Amino acid sequence: MAKCAICEKSVNHGNKLSITRSHISKRSPRTWKPNLRSVKVTENGETKRIYVCAKCLRDGKVKRA
Question: Which residues pair with 52 in a beta bridge?
């Protein structure tokens, strides 16, 4: 399972709701996947390739190589 290396965000599960005439008629399972990017990162003087979510990249929690 894919997971962000910084915030450990992973897949969430829930229900997809079908709404007909203001009633929820059917529920079917679905998943929400994180927006992961493969990024080269410098850690302890060496470059690594890790998976990071787009929110951590945007917030500057990762130092790119």
Answer: 37
* CA within 13 Å, CB half, 50: 21
The answer to whether 32 and 10 are in contact (CB under 8 A) is: no
- pTM, full prediction: 0.75
Which is nearest to 64 in space by CA: 37, 38, 36, 40? 40
pLDDT digits (tens, 9 = 90+) for 13-42: 999 888 777 777 788 899 999 999 999 999
List, as one string, the DSSP characters of 10-43.
--EEEEEEEEETTEEEEEEEEEE---EEEEEEEE
Backbone angles phi, psi at 2, to 5 degrees: -75, 145
